[in-house]
Design goal:
Number of domains: 3
Strand content: 15-25%
Mean pLDDT: 90
Number of strands: 9
Number of helices: 13
Largest sheet: 6 strands, mixed
Length: 371
């Protein structure tokens, strides 16, 4: 093999390897986010029976991406990993291609929420990767490991252990890097506004008429000159002809009392300090209802700081009324899953400003910041 070809393959190995390592680590920072993205695809295909397995798929995929990236860089067992990467990139290209053609998926989750890509960007990225991986696949027999087998196995086991530890940590303590619009320091009201210089969707009214047994669509400009009673009006729809970017980072945040009174604006526009505990449901109630929690409630009462429990589980919330010195608010389950990756998660608020945000397991460490 010529020196030029050897160096070219080395550069490609590093490009492919680093991209897979970066992709795996970014998603390992928030494995639940990837599992929710998988559920979007399963929703589109009506494969609801796979919902219970998306988190396991996410955890395994993130570990594999980092593992494969390191293996490609060091050239370990390229006959095996070139096959695996080729099959994986074909699968990814199918998913991103489907997202482009169907229009049902807004972002593909290739780099998690930290680096959101449009379906088109993701698909083009996968096409480039496919070409690079195909080159490695064709030349797989000419690539040998740069380190001995024992060192390679130790390195790969360290990668598996490190990524697994990272995922276990963030699922208990929240992502190390919070890339969501509900991160500490953000203002929820500002995040509910469209981006600066945003362009709204371009919409055209389409009229459906039936004539001579066939249904045709017309815009206001293309209505037939002979439009009369022989045309049967069917429907009028608003069709998006050009997608804009006026969707705010937070589009559906709303809080309601148990009596279904909307209290969102009143709470976010207040100048009060308060604490919200986002609990999608009460499946972990016995874990966070402990002495630390009870002492925290006493601390809030002494400082006259209001405490709210935000949940999508109205039935169990009503059962707890009177047992906890807190007001219960209802929120959408998807919003709560987005805002709070750990069930439950504390938000220390000042009006609409997120002053602090932490998992229930870190209450003892953060409660000293509540003042």
């Amino acid at each position: 093999m010529s020196t030029y070809k050897k160096n070219t393959l080395l550069v490609i190995r590093w490009l492919v390897g680093l991209l897979f390592i970066f992709s795996g680590l970014v998603k390992a920072n928030d494995p639940l986010g990837l599992s929710y993205k998988m559920q979007e695809f399963f929703d589109a295909w009506n494969w609801y029976s796979f919902y219970d397995y998306t988190l396991a798929f996410s955890l395994i995929m993130n570990v594999f991406e980092v593992l494969a990236g390191v293996a490609v860089i060091i050239g370990w067992r390229m006959k095996l990993f070139s096959w695996l990467l080729l099959l994986l990139i074909i699968f990814f290209a199918f998913l991103t291609g489907y997202a482009v053609l169907s229009g049902k998926i807004k972002t593909c989750g290739c780099f998690g929420d930290c680096l959101p890509l449009t379906p088109t960007q993701s698909f083009l990225k996968d096409l480039v990767l496919f070409v690079l991986i195909l080159i490695l696949f064709i030349n797989r027999k000419q690539i040998s490991s740069s380190i001995n087998s024992v060192a390679a196995i130790v390195l790969l086991l360290l990668c598996v252990g490190s990524v697994s530890f990272l995922q276990a940590y963030v699922m208990k303590h929240l992502p190390v890097v919070d890339c969501l619009p509900y991160k500490k320091g953000n203002n929820i009201l500002k995040e509910m506004q469209p981006p600066p210089n945003a362009v709204p969707d371009s919409v055209v009214m389409v009229f459906k008429y039936k004539k001579n047994g066939g249904v045709k669509e017309y815009t206001a400009e293309t209505l037939p000159a002979d439009l009369d009673s022989t045309y049967e009006f069917i429907d009028r729809i608003d069709k998006v002809v050009r997608k804009g970017n006026a969707t705010p980072p937070i589009a559906d945040f709303a809080l309601f009392t148990l009596n279904e009174t909307d209290t969102t604006d009143a709470l976010l526009n207040s100048d009060d300090k308060y604490v919200m505990l986002f609990a999608k449901d009460f499946s972990a109630f016995d874990q966070w209802m402990n002495d630390d929690f009870k002492n925290f409630l006493l601390q809030l009462q002494e400082k006259q700081i209001h405490f709210y429990i935000v949940t999508a589980d109205k039935q169990n919330a009503e059962k707890l009324i009177g047992n906890l010195p807190a007001d219960f608010l209802l929120g959408d389950a998807t919003v709560i899953k987005t805002a709070a990756r750990v069930n439950p998660t504390y938000f220390f608020m000042h009006g609409a400003n997120i002053i602090d945000k932490f998992s229930y397991v870190d209450l003892k460490k953060h409660r000293q910041n509540i003042h």
